[in-house]
Design brief:
By secondary structure, the protein is an all-alpha fold. The chain has three helices and no strands. InterPro entries: Coa4-like, Cys_alpha_HP_mot_SF. This is Cytochrome c oxidase assembly factor 4 homolog.
Length: about 80
Amino acid sequence: MASPAPHDRTRRPSQDQDEEDPVDQMISRTGCGELHYAVQECMAEHQDWRKCQSQVQTFKDCMITFQKARKEQLMKQRPSTESA
């Protein structure tokens, strides 16, 4: 039996229909979910990642922005280790 393609996002009958993919949950929390879906739709349509570079770059830029903001937020929450 062949394993599914790495980017096969179809639901298997054994999966709970209300269960959301953990990757989709994680990406939706970044605010970049729609851009991620645009990449997926482009890939499904063209079957060639080279034709989707605009969508990939836009998604990448969104994720970088989120990661920078998250890092700054975590740095602010971090207790100061400097003692007087």
